[in-house]
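The protein record filed here:
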Amino acid sequence: MQQPDPSLFNEDLAPVPLGRRTWGIYSYASLWVAMSVCIPTYMLASALIASGMNWWQAIGTISLGNLIVLIPMLLNAHAGTKYGIPFPVFVRASFGVKGANLPAVLRALVACGWFGIQTWIGGQAIQSMLVVALPAWAALPGSIWICFFAFWLLNMFVIWRGIETIRFLEGVGAPLMLLVGIALLFWITGKAGGFGPVLHSPGKLNTFGAFFPVFIPSLTGMVGFWSTVALNIPDFTRYAKSQKAQAVGQAIGLPLAMTLYSFIGVAVTSASVVLFGEAIWDPVALIGRFHEPLLALIALIAILIATLNTNVAANVVSPSNDFSNLNPKLISFRTGGMITGVAGIVIMPWKLMSDYGSYVFGWLVGYSGLLGPIAGIMIADYFVVRKSVLRVDDLYRRGGAYEYSGGINWQAVFSLFAGIAVALVGLVVDALHPLYSYAWFVGFAVSGGCYVLLMRKKS
């Protein structure tokens, strides 16, 4: 490699040498199991039951959504495996060595939102634990806010001390959540009379006219759920032994893990309809209805530990690095983490999680309209414009093939905002609201198509 520019290179961003590419099929399959087994996955499934779907409609929607998002996942994964480069470097090819900060920050802001959501879930778990142990706690004014900010401060403490402080929890979060999910499944289905009554619980969307308007934005939400990782999947596939290893491992792990753990959410929420006459989509709220205090406490503690582990690992490291990358001299990893924490509050996660509609149709569909256009540009640039050929040295230096205009490819920037505008215009123009229901798909197609046309015209 030629001498890289210090502002564009460090050891973490450097291409992974062939000798260190050791991840095989099992590595990627197990990675997706670890990432899929979490509270947001459960709530993704339970939200569809709460929206009126029956169990097979919900599972079918989730499975189809994950098969669709697997396509851009595998396409963007190709460059990581071929060249050993991470997402922040790969995206320089399309946006420019400086312009790459734009998609990186957009992705970081979505991660900040997920940080806030996970923190709110953790705060709810603390609240439920205290109510189980000290029933009088529920009457204390503002008790939920005390719990929320207590968990937020715990996350900030971990960030300040560094990720090493919870390294011992890595690998524990997913098994804990899997055990809690299975225990919750058998406990509540037993109370409801077994799987028969649960799976025969009728939905409310029994005609095509009733089902389709809910299905389309729900499907977009399912795609949006993993649209963040569909962008930064090169961060993982740069360690792959081969294209076959990462592709087969992901094709096995993502749809299977999501479908299986989603089934737990679907079945448990369906059972809550049988038991309580309403779909309780929030597992923390459902556990709060347990009449076995010890069981409830154990389950809530497991949720708390798993949520802390997932939050710091999945929702802090990436945005902290993205913010730090904007100005490494002024913004350290710690400072980036503090920015992430504050942004997680500003986004008001309690509103995003106030009901299933806000979670799926507001949060998931909304941010998919930001990330779909980025995926469209990256894939169009790599496969259509460049035919999967990159000049790796130029990704790390100024004045090379990816310098464009002052380090920014304005064709990519224009295409990005064009896709976002078309995807989200339905939020302000009622007649165009169907575009919002397809936000990820619309943004992907508009930005990708626009980028190819502009780049061909430029050349």
User: Anything to note?
Assistant: The mean pLDDT is 87. DSSP finds 22 helices and no strands in the chain. Residues 94 and 381 are 6 Å apart (CA to CA). The domain at 18-458 is CATH 1.10.4160.10 (Hydantoin permease).
